[in-house]
Amino acid sequence: MPVRSSRRLILGLDVGGTFTKAVLIDGAGKVVARDKVASLGFSNKKVFEAATKGVAMRMLGPLGRDIKDILSVGVGVPGPVDFDKGIVLSLTNIRGWDRFPLADFLRKAWRRPVFVENDANCMALAEARAGAGRGCDDLLGVTLGTGVGGGLVLGGKIYRGPFYMGGEIGHIPVAADGPACGCGGVGCLERMIGNAALQERVRVLFQRDVLLEETSRLAREGDARALKFWAETGEILGRVLAGVVHVVGSRTIIIGGGVAEAGEALFQAVRASFARHAMKQIKGRVAIKKAALGNEAGMLGAAWLAKEEA
Ligand SMILES: [Zn+2]
Q1: Using an 8 Å Cβ cutoff, are 77 and 88 in contact?
Q2: Does the model's pTM come out above 0.85?
């Protein structure tokens, strides 16, 4: 008997280097269960396959539901993805996943439609559907952490472009004399405001190691060095964001990831810089907000993608 649409469930997975997060949403996008599983041994694809079924069963059991109630599966991964072919192009945190045809592999195991997407794109979609950008069809999602990731939702859909690199703002070159980047470029945004670069600047400024959280507290208290640090960081990011909006016209920019926890110290500086660099037709018309879904955004975006594509 076919599953009634009102009872269908969608599984979203966010495969990380340490943990894989899992969520079940219903046809309306409501979260009905969440769980996680260690990504241990995922270099062995059979271990990965068994883990996806195991975590799904653990969520379905208490609901009195079964694998057959799952309509489709979405998977987010922290690396570039050929979405159309469902291939992970490269992945640094799990060995053996370069060029892995993940969608085909899970489709055979699950006998359901499977969609694979880059995790920053998943974050942008999740924030557009159920987060801080809810209802917004033209949104840029930015993740600030060890890396600087980005995802674009344009006209209500993830924009990937022909190279599947749409929205990759982390590798916009911003400093001609900046440090070399792993991508082959020089002075990329990620090399200027990624976690490692920020920690290095803090060390120089304070002459000691200071946690980023402490610098945001110090900024709130009016500490000149902390204010300077966040003003410089916000200046770089706000300038890049203004450039992106000039090209693609995002109405909403959502910033998440560990560094976004700096809060207003960062956001005030980014908004001020954006206002300085944005064209007058755009100034004051773009909302720059903190992400609302935290580290659940990846799995939620994967689930929403599978719900909408299936
Ligand atoms: Zn780069």
Answers
A1: yes
A2: yes
